[in-house]
Amino acid sequence: MARKTPVAGNHSEAPSAAPLSAEQVAESYRLMLLSRLLDERVYALNRQGKAPIVASAQGHEACQIGAVWALDKTRDLFVIYYRDIATCLALGYSVSELMLGYMARRGAPFSGGRQFPYGGADLKRRVINTSNVVASQIPHAVGAALAFKMRREPSVAIVHFGDGATSEGETHESMNFAAVHKLPVIFFCENNGYAISVPLRKQLAMARISDRAAAYGFPGVTVDGTDVAATYRAVREAADRAREGGGPTLIEAVVPRLMAHTTDDDERRYRTAEELEERKRRDPLPRLRQTLLDGGLLTADGDSAMRRQCIAEIDQAMAAAESTPYPDESTFYDHVYAPQAKK
Ligand SMILES: Cc1ncc(C[n+]2csc(CCOP(=O)(O)OP(=O)(O)O)c2C)c(N)n1
Description:
By secondary structure, the protein is an alpha/beta fold. It has a single domain (22-331), classed as 3-Layer(aba) Sandwich (Rossmann fold). The chain is 40% helix and 11% strand. It has helices spanning 22-47, 61-69, 85-91, 95-102, 137-150, 169-180, 212-216, 228-243, 273-278, 284-294, 300-322, and strands at residues 77-79, 120-122, 127-129, 157-162, 185-191, 194-195, 198-199, 220-224, 249-254. The chain has a seven-stranded mixed beta sheet with strand order 2-3-1-4-5-9-8, with helices on both faces. Strands 6-7 form a two-stranded antiparallel sheet. β6 and β7 form a beta hairpin. The model is unreliable at 1-17 (pLDDT under 50). Thiamine diphosphate binds at residues 83, 132-134, 161-165, 190, 192, 194-196, 261.
């Protein structure tokens, strides 16, 4: 691992094509841990009736962080989906901001507390996810990429989605259109093997989701989505090509889904006990912790201190969200309909 100044989470300068530095790898562990602990806390809040619904990112964290770090927050567009918790942390959202979304409070970054957590748009920070309708975000990203190309802006749109989304018609129309017009867009599939209860083998007849790209005429790659650096490299390469006019890439990041689809789902009805046990071996968090411990980049005491710090941050965010009011009724139609002219 090359050692250099950490730039994690701060890509106002062009990101380096070099592999991640040791410091970045250590920072990715902190973000993964924070995402995991936040995820666990909001699951508990859901069971207490305080967070209406939670879609967990457990297992997806590494690929989400690697993808963000390969792009430029100041000029690229991040079209996320409901499972992108670590993506948002890597983009610089604070736990306090995200907690407002979980508890549907005023001031939540994407919808002001009126939508599913992570649903809505934060145009100032170039992050959008206008709907939870599966795959509906994909044509939005392609439209933005078309605008970048027409305006000759050196920006790239990345769009995140799950494996199930690749069966939707909108996905195919979007990929084909993006290919024909060589648009600067990265299709980023977080393949966790399930669309709620539907396993991958019932979504597609070929081995890999990335194989779909060949049908449109652009590159498709499969990466180990539990590896931050592998994902970073794949996204960085796709972004470089897109900025040079080389068009889209489909990246399939293979990850385990370590929790049920959402807090509303009971996965024991469709996954065997052996499978639920086996997936723990693919958890990116303990693996990265061990790598850092072995490499002398983390100590057991340092790990405990980091964990305490993350929990304190989450405690504080929770208390702040609980004392924040719900959105005002008068804002019910904000961002839904154009403002009415006064008669
Ligand atoms: C068009 C549409 N059909 C069905 C649903 C209900 N639904 C919500 S999430 C989901 C599964 C999506 O699975 P996948 O794309 O693999 O993403 P994952 O949630 O596994 O990350 C479904 C069917 C929906 N929101 N939109």
